[in-house]
Amino acid sequence: MGLEIFWSGFGRLSPDVFPKCAQDKTTPTFVARFIFLASVCGSIMSGLLSRATTDSRFQLAATAVVSGGIVAAGLLSYQRLSQEKRVSKLKESIPDPSEERPVQKLTSLGAIPPPDKEDLRTEALARRAQAGDFDDELILEQLARNRVFLTPEGLDKLRNSFVIVVGCGGVGSHATAAFARSGVSKLRLIDFDQVTLSSLNRHAVATLADVGLPKVQCLQKRLRAIAPWVKFDLRLEKFDGNSAEPLLAPWGENGQKPDFVVDAIDNIDTKVALLKYCHDHQIPVISAMGAGCKSDPTRIIVGDISTTTDDGLSRATRRRLKLQGVTNGIPAVYSTERTAEGKAQLLPLAEEEFQKGTVGDLGVLPDFRVRILPVLGTMPAIFGLTVANHVILKITGYPCDYVESKGSGKTFDSVFSIVQANEERLVRAEPGAPVDVAVGLRITLSVADVNFLIEEMYRGRSAISSLPTGLFLMRWRKPQGSILQTTGEGEDQQKWTTLRMSDLVCMTKKEAKLHEQQVLKEGKSPEELYDAETLKRVEERIAEIKEYEKYR
Fold it and tell me: What region holds the THIF-type NAD/FAD binding fold domain (predicted)?
């Protein structure tokens, strides 16, 4: 009862009663009231106690105890009232369910900002167009120049086509924009990433307002305003070998298979998985190689992947595909521009990052590039438009006669036959070997492996002299023990040797003949024949080949 009377009186106090506190504009009313009340209560208690006793020490102690209690009660009350005020503000910020407010759509990357009036108008127009409520004459007028160029029949093929773009960054966004503008009616976009501020220098349609938005949604949002009749199938996913089948599946209800797949990926593992799947399932595909560190547009060409040169991404992709049995048949857009002094290079990683621990943790995803690759914004656009141009010509059947890329022109069948013959001679030379021991003997390599070793690992040159002509493959060291392996008996018997790619070294015909005589027949070691520089060069190549053998 006493506390109720206390708080009732406390609430009725006003700044007029305590003018000194009220004069300080920074002092909250509650605090001013509390200070005044504490001093009043202290005076009252002091008066009461003075009447009860004349002991001054007792009066001081009692006054201190009572005043301390009042201060503690006041502080706790202030904290409680402050908390209630914050909770009240929080509750007020929560919208009433009955109120009509724009709802934010959710994706796996978070909420999408509510659309503005222009976005709502574009979405409404796109819904009408895809439902058939859009005059076809308007579409034909918008595509009039393409219709004249490709012929009406060619444009019809393009409008009925289904194209998949894997990777919607600099290259993929420009290709997608070209498809939508040119008349492709069904586009499936596959990318797990978001638009970033640093990607605006090369993205085809992204704006500052799109930063943080998934790339696939950004493309749909912007391209609907250009071609509202285009149907989009957005896949906010990372492509890999396990997801290939559903991501490259036919389109919707009609089961239309993709007319073309665009590889605009800059990760080697993912790139190889996509190209291998398309090659094995006979899905038309074109691969865009590295646009990073390139600046010469006159060096960009379209050619078979087997002829790609002077590009790290294409070289690594080509090697991995060859190890999986894919040597050609995939068109690629690549640059023949070579690196030189003063030109952009892959940026080194800061030393402090190495000191922190595993630098692989800095990547967006495992096995993704960690270091920054400089990119001139114009080059991905040229790559992407070149890719789109090729796809459009192929779908419509328009004649396309590219300048042929210079290939190696070398036949590797003869080199393969020589490797086979050398293995047969080694098997017959084994102690106690029967006369027909080499009959039916096979080796574990293929013509593609021979091609890979000479062209990719040894760069088309002898490891001994660096000469580029008359190349052979020869075992580097004499085998220890028997190299013959067998299984089964009689007609079911199978024979092969333990030969691996890392056992062979590229050399000229004369070098191979001398090496065979002194190493394989006389038993000398390579260290007895070659200088330290040659030995180091060969061992480095062998170590590199062993790394690639892991992918076989």
Answer: 145-412
